[in-house]
Amino acid sequence: MTSADLPGDRPFVLLATRAQDGPADEEYALFLRFTGLPPERLRRVRLEREPMPEIDLDEVSGILVGGSPFNASDPSERKSAVQRRVEAEMAALVDEVVARDAPFLGACYGVGTLGTHLRAPIDGTFAEPISVVDVTLSAAGRADPLLRGMPDTFAAFVGHKEAISSLPGTATLLASSSTCPVQMFRVGENVYATQFHPELDLDGIITRIHAYASFGYFAADELDLTLAAVRRAPVTATGGILRAFAERYAR
To answer: Per the database record, which ranges form the Glutamine amidotransferase domain (predicted)?
Structure first.
């Protein structure tokens, strides 16, 4: 199915929080590429620059959330005013999304936003360095519409300082890795979050490695090791999750 074959004309919305233009623009381009959506069907909102506009869930096909340098588990006094605003806006939106079971897919930062809504434990216990890990589907994951056709185990890009250690009974675990028990989950039938980055390719993660070299994801002398870690195995399957999301919910 091509972008021209997608039904309807209602846009998807990408909520982004990357302050650096290079990684932010590349993230948007990667979401376009992997969803197969044309720019007019994927409206980007850069929340680090502007307040969240009013989003009428009846007038959009779905919500996508990109990754973020923000950590939900940081103490409030360490969060910037921008982060506190973004979190408040995200919380209000996610409350409505979950209540209505509206189409939503949060990549990496989606775990923090959706996990906070669920009051799931979010901390640094299962943080993963920037790397490629093997992610394995649960039985529910193998049956999920967004994951049909995915291998039972697939390579994915990760890099996060916090994670969910256990899910409440209101959520369905879809995928795990040996180093992080919650790699993907679903709430209701249409609300998803991934800890790994389905929107990334090798060039994209290399851009982020250089852009966020001073953000504490790796030590100053570990740049070469980190670049080698993301080349450990080819990542070829994860973008299909975004395409499946666009095809399932376009209207």
So the answer is: 52-201
CA dihedral 221, 222, 225, 230 (to 10 degrees): -140
> If you average pLDDT over residues 42-56, what whole number do you get?
97
Domains of the chain: 3-249 (3.40.50.880)
For 72-152, strand residue ranges (E) read: 104-107, 122-123, 128-137
pTM of the full structure: 0.96
- Using CA atoms, how far residue 247 sits from 6, 36, 62, 182, in Å, is 6, 9, 11, 25
What is the rounded CA–CA span in Å between residue 153 and residue 20?
A: 33
Residue-wise pLDDT for 134-168, tens only, equals 999 999 999 999 999 999 999 999 999 999 999 99
In angstroms, the Cα distances linking 64 to 104, 185, 195, 216, 227 are: 6, 15, 14, 26, 27
Phi, psi angle pair for 163, to nearest 5°: -160, 165
Span 218-246, pLDDT tens digits: 999 999 999 999 999 999 999 999 999 99
Length of the chain: 251
67 vs 54: CA distance, rounded Å: 21
| Region of residue 55 (left: phi > 0; alpha: psi -120 to 50; beta: else) | beta
CB 227 within 8 A of CB 209: yes
Kindly tell me the number of DSSP H helices and DSSP E strands found in the chain.
7, 11
